[in-house]
Amino acid sequence: MSRLPIPAVLLLALLSACSGSTLVDAVTPNSGYTLAADLPFASTPTGDPRLRLDLYRPEHPASGAPAIVFFYGGNWEAGEKEQYRFVAQALAARGYTVAVPNYRLYPGVRYPAFLEDSAAAVAWVRRHGAEHGAPPGPVAVMGHSAGAYNALMLAVDGRWLGAQGLDPATDLRAAVGLAGPYDFLPLDSDMLKDLFGPEERRPDTQPINHVTPRTPPLFLATGTDDTTVYPRNTRRLTERVRQAGGTVEEVEYEGLGHIRIIAAFASPLRWLAPVVDDVDRFLRALPPLGR
């Protein structure tokens, strides 16, 4: 009896429903890392239980590799850190310590609460990660889709890390954005209009409007077939960073859509595109900060 190869089955599941993440998790290796789960990184007056992260420590750390804080996507209204073990495992296998935090979601919160949560997670890793085996020093932030927005806003807009006593220029080694929305006005969705507030304030919510010469090195990737977050977001942010004199690498994966760019982190799906290889190469090539 003929059957589809495992990669094809996984891809179909990933593209069909949330059950895809369960299937990917089932075939993701459990070896190569040590997991410290549900570490609290912040608190709220109401004691929100979402403000916890999972920390993956590699068995064979790469010399000089920064810890990575990965933010998942989900339109700021869905997502759980446990669903992204396949991303953490792919990076831990390359020697990176990876933190995957949850953050508060809509409709429970609105902008900028998820940025405040993201900044708090970075600050916790920066200050306390070494207590759990993470390498000391500046960290890299990384995200997919809405998570890429979170990561890039921390990198380009100093308010969020500044509120935690940190500076993106010195506390971030780099930022990696995969299929992220960085310049997406005007808003058509009623949900997004509610999430990002009054129209006159929305330009302030766009990463592209906060780029400065002090922006840390960026790796921005998109798929040419992405119809969820259009590639123009990546292209425009890349152009703005270059105009400001910053360091940015842009990669467009031919034929890749919005989900496949992150699905390519799963070991049976890496044939889709060399996303893991490219992120690894970019991070390893970063110049030292000199501190």
TrEMBL record:
Check the record and name the InterPro entries matching this protein. AB_hydrolase_fold (IPR029058), BD-FAE-like_dom (IPR049492), GDXG_lipolytic_enzyme (IPR050300)
Pfam families linked: BD-FAE
Q: Name one GO molecular function term.
A: hydrolase activity
Q: Does the keyword DNA repair apply?
A: no
The UniProt keywords, alphabetically, are:
Hydrolase, Signal
Q: Does the keyword Membrane apply?
A: no
The chain positions of domain BD-FAE-like read: 53-239
Q: Which PROSITE patterns match?
A: PROKAR_LIPOPROTEIN (PS51257)
Kindly indicate where the leader peptide sits in this chain. 1-26
Give the protein name, as stated in the record.
Alpha/beta hydrolase
Which organism is this entry from?
Azospirillum doebereinerae
Q: What is the lineage of its organism?
A: Bacteria, Pseudomonadati, Pseudomonadota, Alphaproteobacteria, Rhodospirillales
